[in-house]
Design brief:
InterPro entries: TAF1. GO terms for molecular function: histone acetyltransferase activity; RNA polymerase II general transcription initiation factor activity; TBP-class protein binding. The protein has 115 residues and is α+β, with helices and mostly antiparallel strands. It is 50% helix and 14% strand.
Length: 115
């Protein structure tokens, strides 16, 4: 549980850095022209995300469509999509088998406490 929280916190901080435009290997930003990385062209644009979920009770799949309007978030999604391959993104999002087993055990423990 604590490991999951730490991992989520780390991922949240990494996404926050990406939203702010900071990169780990980046030093001080150069001043002058070229500072705006094209966010002005993202103003007014929307990003359509289709997320697929699995219903835990029935096991069926369902989709939910979300529209992202904030230019910084749209920019972050586009940057991640351009720089990372599909395999990396799927691996980053999906928990590994060990994490899944830990979540299952935690659910069982909570259910036993409720009985």
């Amino acid at each position: 549980s604590q490991l999951t929280e730490e991992r989520e916190e780390q991922e949240r901080k990494e996404l926050q850095r990406m939203l702010l435009g900071h990169h780990p290997d980046e030093g001080k930003k150069k001043e002058g022209k070229g500072e705006d990385t094209g966010r002005s062209n993202l103003v007014g644009k929307r990003l359509k995300l289709t997320r697929t979920f699995r219903d835990p009770e029935t096991g069926g799949l369902y989709e939910r469509v979300e529209y992202i309007r904030r230019p910084a978030v749209v920019d972050a999604y586009i940057r991640i999509r351009k720089n990372k391959d599909d395999q990396f993104i799927r691996q980053f999002v999906a928990p590994d088998e060990q994490q899944k087993e830990k979540i299952r055990r935690e659910k069982r423990r909570i259910q036993e406490q409720l009985r």
